[in-house]
Design goal:
The structure holds two protein chains of two kinds. Chain A is of the alpha/beta class. Chain A is 17% helix and 42% strand. Chain A has a four-stranded mixed β-sheet, with no helix packed on it. In chain A, strand 6 and strand 7 form a beta hairpin. The radius of gyration of chain A is 17 Å and the shape is globular. The model of chain A has no long low-confidence stretch (mean pLDDT 88). Helix content of chain B is 52%, strand content 17%. In chain B, a hairpin with a 2-residue loop joins strand 20 and strand 21. Classes of the chains: A alpha/beta, B alpha+beta. Chains A and B meet through helix 1, strand 2, strand 3, strand 7 and strand 8 of A and helix 2, helix 5, helix 7, helix 9 and helix 13 of B.
Chain lengths: 117, 782
Amino acid sequence: MMWINLIGLVVIGLIVWWFWLYQTKSTEVRDGSIEVRVKDGVYQPANITVPANESVQLMFYREDATPCAETLLIPELEISETLVLNKRVMVTIPPKKAGRYPFHCQMQMYRGTLVIK
Amino acid sequence: MNSKPDSAKAHGCCSGGDKTSTANEAVDTKTQTRQVSSDAGEIQLNIQGASCASCVTKIETALKQVAGVTSAEMNFAQRTVLINSNASPSELVRAVEEAGYNATLANADSDEAAIEEKEQADWAYYKKLMRHMVIALSLGVPLMIYGLVTGEMSVNTTTERIVWLIIGLMTLGVMVFSGRHFYVGAWNSFKNHSANMDTLIALGTGTAWLYSMTVVFFPGYVPEMARHVYFEATAMIIGLINLGLALEIKARGKTSEAIKRLIGLQAKTARVIRDGDDIDIPIEDVLLNDLIRVRPGERISVDGVVVEGQTSIDESMLTGEPMPIEKRKDDEVVAGTINKSGSIVFRAERVGKDTALAQIINMVKRAQNSKPPIGRLADVISAYFVPVVMIIAVMSALAWLNFGPAPEVAFAIVSATTVLIIACPCALGLATPMSVMVGVGKAAEAGVLIRNGEALQSASKITTMVLDKTGTITEGAPKVTDVVIASAHNQDDVLSLAASLESGSEHPLAMAIVESAKEQGVPIHSVTDFESIAGKGVAATLNSQRLLFGNEKLMKEKSIELHHYVDKAQRLAAEAKTPMYFAIDSKLVAVIAVADPIKSDSIDAINRLQHNGIRVVMLTGDNRMTAKAVARKAGIVDYVAEVMPEDKANKVLELQREGEIVGMTGDGINDAPALAHANVGFAIGTGTDVAIESADITLMRGSLHGLADAIAVSKATLRNIKQNLFGAFIYNVAGIPFAAGVFYPFLGLLLSPVIAGAAMAFSSLTVVTNANRLRLFKAKEH
């Protein structure tokens, strides 16, 4: 029983580490734009690094028919955009100071982070 | 890229009181999204069929050959091309097609086509989910019935092992066919170090299936009492969740009815007069200054100015104003409205995304996607929800294994699975946006444009409504009613001189005097040294005479004797007229009174606000007597007279200090500081002028009933959000412990994973359905 409890605690530890503590890798935007695919329940890439004080364009391409994927929100930039299925939708991020700007769908099931630095 | 810097500025100057500079910055960002449109000389096309880098040159060259194209740059990686041009988008698309590729206008599909595509996509997805549901339930339901009837879902004999193995593989088939999207989504999220609803479903059903297969393959390793299989749970959960998602799509479709109605107002074609001929062209191809002919019964295609003909136009669909409006030469016409009686020709002044209708649609869409602050807590919870539920599931399994009755393993598996399945982050996530979507749409139907979720929430809490008098309570078109001569001048001379002085001012009172002079046919001269004394009056020089026109305060400041004319002025004021003094070379010449009639339904609307427990305060620059008379007529007890423009903002702040949540209604220009300080700034539209988008809430028609409607719809929406949030919180807060088996020691109750699956599937459906109830909301008839 002790082993089972220990395994259980390790699993809890792994959940905390994997979902909250792990520093995810971020994709850097080159040439001022990047394509973000919305497919199979996730944004790909979900973590995007963009240079500070420069305008960049995120080209969202939604291939996922789930209605949740339809709305893209970047609350801190007050951006909300409707992603049309199988169409590219361009979202222009204005020049911003360094910081982390999460983006997600309405229900926060699709999640990503825009890291400006 | 930003084609509307001025509008962005306008946002900034008048944003709501509790917003910070971030809000202003954010408004700028709003104008920067969706900039790849066809209205700023810059057009972006999506290219299909370009497979090699050499295509780039071919496409660019083809585009550059189109007349009016100054540059064309293709981004091969994105398969997009950015064109600087004044050619119509369809010409550009044709050029690309002639070069052998396909092209579509990026982000600039007609809204109607986009809605149609969305509906088709939703319908296809709905059918797919229903198919998945049927497959899953056709295995799950018989299995569940078998289990309920026989009570036997255990593995004891070799025959049972073989039968359950076959059923296990069939369940795997259901998981692959009907539940593939959950597992793929869960795996992708996992790789991204995030977790979502898919994670919970995949873990829940996966655990049940894996445990059951362990029982089938290695029964010896599982205590005899725990040799149960849960294939029916796996299949049922997948089936029910697919059903829930399908029904949710249906219900969601209804939440966007209002925007569909607005989009439906857009005409598809326009009859343009080119080279003397009338030709029908798609509205996307209408250019500025095109002359457009509209016959009776037809819809106005773009915004413009009538150049020929006379008609009456039904603007009710945009403003809620039921009476058709007469239009003749030089009057504005607005896209989406319907020409009733005559035939007209108008000149296109705003096309594409610049038309009032397009801006309204854009604004409503934007507002529908924004969240009021009340939803923020749910967002924070959603962000941590899934991993927390996973931890609870592990803890619950451990608790059963340590302290549970036999068979501990079975109890542990059932409780962990049920916890994973019952938890529904979707209901929490949907609670706010669904209601906002319906509420903002409902408001738009009543001619009330709400800028964002924050404005919606603040409007629901308003305790005091501050109304500017002129143009808000009254018509805003005052007329001269009395000219009391106080010197040797005759009436025509006085009117001529006063009108000459006032011709430099844009104040409504000044305009009334100029208008009256024109009507009387008296001359209006040019003046020099014009000076506007804010909130008091004006002065100027004419033929070496210094003319002064203004209120009592101004006359006193300039030490002008008013004698008994003060009494006369007071008498006029008591009749709700605005008396003003006119002096020449520091000597009083006349008292001129103008009156601005109260709008026909203002009294009713103010009464409605007061009846709903809202304190109404009137602010006016008028003297005390006039203010009192107007307030009395309008049924207002609180009024502040002789208010300078900057004092309006102070009054708002003073009310806020008293603890009031203040709504301020004004014309959006003179009242900008007060609108900005108020908790909610309301702008009254002059019919269809959406330039006053600066306010938190814009009333599309002049009636003050719009205020009561806006507050009523905001209250109804907030109530709906609270119900949804409460329901979603309670569901999870009660459901998760129940699923974990907290009540088992006391009541002997443990939830079945199948019931949990049904509850989870229908919890988000309930939220959407409840939001849809808002569609029944009706602004009070008036």
